[in-house]
Write a structure and sequence with these properties.
Layout (H helix, E strand, L loop, with lengths): L21 H7 L3 H15 L14 E10 L10 E13 L2 E4 L1 H4 L2 E7 L7 E9 L4 E6 L22 E6 L8 E15 L5 E8 L11 E4 L2 E9 L7 E5 H10 L13 E4 L4 H6 L9 E6 L14 E5 L2 E2 L5 E4 L2 E4 L1 H5 L6 E8 L2 E8 L19 E4 L2 E5 L2 H7 L4 H12 L10 E6 L14 E6 L2 E2 L3 H8 L7 E6 L6 E4 H15 L5 E2 L3
Antiparallel strand pairs: 1-2, 1-4, 2-3, 3-6, 4-5, 5-6, 7-8, 7-10, 8-9, 9-12, 10-11, 11-12, 13-14, 14-15, 15-16, 15-19, 17-18, 19-20, 21-22, 21-28, 22-23, 23-24, 24-25, 24-26, 26-27
Amino acid sequence: MCNSSPTENSSFQITRPALVSAAMRLILRPLLPLALTAAASGQLKESPLTTKPKPTIYDSVVKIECATQVPDYRTPWNSGRFSGGRGTGFLIGPNQFLTNAHVVSDARRLLITRRGSAQKHVARIKHIAHDCDLALLELEYFAPFEDLTPIEIGGMPQLESEVSTIGYPVGGDRLSVTRGVVSRIDFSSYSHSRADSHLVIQVDAAINPGNSGGPVIQGGKLAGVAFQGRTDADNVGYIIPTPVVKRFLEDIKDDEYNHYMDIGLSTFPLFNPAMRKAYKLSDDAKGILVANVVPEGPCDKVIEKGDVLLKIDSNEIDSAGNIRIGGEFVDMNEIVERKFAGDKVKLTILRGGETRDVEITLNEFPYSSIYSIRYDEQPRFTFYGGLVFQPLNFNLYASYSFDDRRLRQIYNDFISKGLFKEIEDIVVLTRVESDRLTTRMGGFTGMVVEEVNDTKIKNLNHLHEIFNTPNPPEFHVIEFNGGARPLIVPSAEAAEAQKRIMQQVGISKASRLEK
């Protein structure tokens, strides 16, 4: 029973302020510190702190500091600029720390600090997946972390459910916890590679610099990994869901990461009534149009341009290219996302009004990397007589912002038109160093090399071999794609200019050919 006012015997007592005279205060004042010290001393003796507090899920979250060296594609012979940053990681197994790939990309030195400690521990990258922005780190010496409990990987959070983002964002050194609500589950672009799209979860909580790589927790288990935000929206962040995490961990079980598979199709929605009628779709039928089939891709010689995809692994495809998995509508590519090289995919198609069941085998397709941002590698180049040649990729494209229309067309058509079957590299003349030999050669920069001495150039190594043959012709005749005239380089003068220009510009090596 609760009383409306406490009594003398109640366990809840109101202590009234005691009235102490001024004289008594003067007498008691010097004795108070001694009394407090004695009381504190007695309290410590009664309850000594003999054990460490039990580690919590917060203790399994670590701070990552990274010293990086970013390559310079405009001066590829240089080692690049040094930089640094920090992010978050967390323990998922014995000496296994999961984080984002973008936190540790181009790393030269990695340090991990556990919560409540100032000691930094040297770490290294064990596996990194730039296409899904995940990396697995390990420590050189794991003993100081052995008492920590790995964070268990859970399932997909539901819409409108609450999650907690844990990490070390900028603005402080201590651990930060931010709560948010799952507002969207979608198939969207991963900004780290620029060219890849996977399943993402949107939350109404900001993902700030430093938060990247931190765990997103629901019910004491991992619901995802924080990885990117939006510059055009407030309090919106994105996390990598656990299906993507699980696939990454499954892929590296053989101690090698083999990348995501691609179905090798371009598709187009089928909402237009005239288009649906032209492709013999009934009014209530669903499906998506095949706009292009990538040569040598998984669907090559099985699927044709103009086919309508109706089902993928028995999942019905709607007119926008979505399927229903686990109660949510996701892009049909989510089926392929969860598979590996050699796995089969069953497709139901409509061709010429007839329904057919076909099967494809997924295979690796390395050529598409030309559209991805490159990390953890130095730019390739060859330098000859003041001319700098480099293979075209996204990093080079972004560094120079090429305005040659033909170069852009070749770059865009490299996969879709099957140009990769004829040439391995799109070789571009990127720089012309100043010298008496190179006078009036600048008009060729930014153009694609097509032939040298009537020989079609297949890749950068091929070009390097032609320039450095033991018995060169008197002149090297360089033909460019769409060029009105060739570039003529006298071999003997180029050899002399090579040493002179390298010394003047400070070029330490004339080529870097390895990938």
